[in-house]
Design a protein that fits this description.
The chain has two domains: 3-250, 4-Layer Sandwich (Metallo-beta-lactamase, Chain A); 253-319, Orthogonal Bundle (Arc Repressor Mutant, subunit A). The radius of gyration is 19 Å and the shape is elongated. A seven-stranded mixed beta sheet has the order 1-2-3-4-5-6-7, with helices on one face. Strands 8-9-10-11-12 form a five-stranded mixed beta sheet, with no helix packed on it. 27% of the residues lie in helices and 18% in strands. It is built from seven helices and 14 strands. The chain is of the alpha/beta class and 320 residues long. A hairpin with a 4-residue loop joins β8 and β9 (166-171).
Length: 320
């Protein structure tokens, strides 16, 4: 698995072993190939694309009894495709919801639309969180579904109604610019994609994602009173308000670790990574550097750190 593919798949937990973290729950049985009931009229089918940063695989969800909705159909994988069709069981599918356009979540949407005639709903096509700087390359480009175009670009707070269900779109940029969660109205359940997961934190890798967006999305979710999250990887988040508050604290602690290295005289991201991630496998230091860059972008934007020109992997950073 390439670094870009690993980064696109959601989790940064491996990169942050040296830092305090929320109480993650890694107890999860994926039951690959099977439809697992996870809530009233909701089934989970987990793709067999397990990996260091996909955990046991990508979760697809089937919602409804008669005419269905599918959340995140998943990657181009024949075994998963047939498992998803088995879960659908010949019933009509009216809508396909996509949380974001990394290749472990969205590619089967087009195939399922061709099979069912369903309407594809998402925040929008894939895009970076900001324009690329001169000479900059997006490390996640190969892992992004650039061909994806939704039939409906859903607004934040917009409700899509189906046969016995109603789903509200919640824009949650951060992991990607077009990330959205979907609330199953009247149930307290939210399909949280890669924004909030029980087993690990989400990777934020500029320019694909942005830390300031991610933190604002956490604030939005924490103001809600949902009772359970069904994420893109791993098992449910059972106390979402408590968990989101802990995630926010965790992110601020990592921000302070980065700021502390700048104040101690580290000028380069490579120096910060060597100190902050000294106990992490050196093969993951490239991913760690992007996580540090995400924090530095946010710190520069808030005036806590300065750099010459736009923040970049190769830039030099100083206290403000």
């Amino acid at each position: 698995m390439t670094l870009a593919v690993m980064l696109s798949c959601g989790s940064a937990n491996i990169l942050e072993q040296t830092l305090s973290e929320p109480e993650f729950d890694r107890a999860f049985e994926p039951a690959h190939g099977e439809a697992v009931p996870v809530a009233s009229d909701v089934m989970r089918v987990t793709a067999p694309n397990a990996g260091p940063l996909t955990f046991h695989g990508t979760n697809s969800y089937v919602v409804g009894r008669q005419t269905l909705a599918v959340i995140d159909p998943g990657p181009q994988d024949e075994a998963h495709w047939h498992a998803l069709l088995a879960a659908i069981g010949g019933r009509p599918v009216s809508h396909i919801f996509v949380t974001h356009t990394h290749r472990d979540h969205s590619p089967l949407a087009g195939r399922l639309k061709g099979e069912s005639g369903a309407t594809i709903v998402a925040e929008g096509p894939h895009r970076a969180a900001r324009p690329l700087h001169t000479g900059e390359v997006n490390p996640l480009k190969e892992s992004s579904d650039m061909d994806f175009v939704p039939d409906v670009a859903v607004a934040h707070g917009e409700i899509i109604e189906g046969d016995g269900w109603a789903i509200e779109a919640l824009h949650t940029p951060g992991h990607t610019a077009n990330h959205a969660a979907f609330a199953l109205n009247g149930t307290g359940h939210v399909f949280s994609g890669d924004h909030v997961m029980a087993w690990a934190t989400s990777i934020i890798a500029p320019p694909d994602g942005a830390m300031s967006d991610f933190m604002a999305s956490l604030d939005m979710l924490s103001a809600r009173e949902d009772r359970r999250y069904l994420p893109g990887h791993g098992g449910p988040v059972t106390e979402p308000q408590k968990f989101v508050r802990a995630l926010r604290t965790h992110r601020r602690m990592r921000e302070q670790a980065v700021l502390g290295r700048v104040e101690k005289g580290d000028r380069l991201i490579s120096e910060m990574v060597a100190a902050i991630y000294r106990d992490t496998d050196p093969r993951l230091h490239g991913a760690a550097a992007l996580s540090v860059l995400a924090h530095l972008e946010d710190l520069v934007g808030r005036g806590a750190v300065v750099t010459d020109g736009p923040p970049s992997i190769a830039g030099e950073y100083r206290p403000a």
